[in-house]
Specification:
Layout lengths: L17 H10 L2 E5 L8 H12 L2 E5 L7 E2 L2 E2 L13 E4 L6 H10 L4 E4 L6 H9 L3 E3 L4 H6 L12
Parallel strand pairs: 1-2, 1-5, 5-6, 6-7
Antiparallel strand pairs: 3-4
Length: 158
């Protein structure tokens, strides 16, 4: 089994190995979610809920004035305002926002930059990897977390 420090994946146009994704998800404990939403109909809310219920220390990040909590968890206005170490920065923002988020993730010492489904930016990947971070783009940690247990049964009829 590869350790977290031994993980490598630099061509983000190619699929990630299951081992790469699973090792990251087993290694991180705290996840700052940039773009977390208090709206229960938003995908970020559902991902936050599942990851929190799975045992991750979730840290919602949203600069909206007056937004203090999501699911009873304190919301931070920015990555640099977080008062504890962050292992992974998960991003629910537009792809063009990712390079700036990558710089902020590097500045706070995060170990992983994870772009949610639809969030892919090669410049951001280079910024993070040049700082020694692991990078995942265009994937959902909630889906990847449960993938080993979910096996489609394509042979079954409808």
């Amino acid at each position: 089994m590869t350790t977290f420090d031994e993980l490598t994946h630099t061509d983000h146009d190619q699929p990630y190995s299951e081992e790469y994704l699973q090792t990251i998800l087993k290694s991180v404990k705290s996840i700052a979610m940039v773009g977390a939403s208090p709206d229960k109909t938003k995908f970020s809310y559902g991902v936050l809920r599942v990851l929190h219920e799975t045992g991750y220390d979730m840290i919602p990040v949203n600069p909206r004035s007056g937004l203090e909590e999501i699911r009873g968890i304190k919301v931070y206005p920015s990555l640099d305002s977080i008062d504890r170490p962050v292992d992974m920065v998960e991003v629910f923002r537009r792809a063009e926002d990712l390079p700036e988020v990558a710089k902020e993730a590097v500045a706070i010492g995060a170990k992983v930059l994870w772009g949610q489904i639809g969030v892919f930016n090669k410049e951001a990947a280079k910024i993070a990897e040049d700082a020694g971070m692991k990078v995942v783009m265009n994937h959902c940690p909630k889906i990847e977390l449960f993938r080993p247990f979910w096996k489609p049964k394509l042979h079954l009829g409808i």
